[in-house]
Write a structure and sequence with these properties.
The protein has 80 residues and is mostly helical. The chain has one domain. 62% of the residues lie in helices and 0% in strands. The protein contains 4 helices and no strands.
Length: 80
């Protein structure tokens, strides 16, 4: 890890302190997790990541697709 120093407003520092005590984590761990979550939201995803998320949703909700979907994709997309 790389050590760094930052200045925090008093209110933000108190908020971090409260969370660290409640979750029994160090302040550094709370800050790292918050930064990772924030940066993950701001990082653009590639098409592969999006498709994997869609697949996970399908597993979560137990959706079913036709067994021949890959062979007959045009039929399912454009025919009624």
């Amino acid at each position: 890890m790389i050590r760094t120093q930052i200045y925090l407003p008093k209110g933000l520092y108190q908020h971090i302190d409260l969370i660290s005590k409640r979750e029994k984590k160090t302040k550094a761990a709370v800050i790292r997790e918050a930064l990772e979550d924030s940066l993950d939201k701001k990082t653009p995803k590639n098409a592969g990541d999006v498709l994997l998320e869609i697949a996970k949703l399908g597993e979560k909700y137990k959706t079913k697709a036709p067994k021949d979907l890959s062979r007959n994709i045009d039929k399912y997309l454009y025919e009624e």
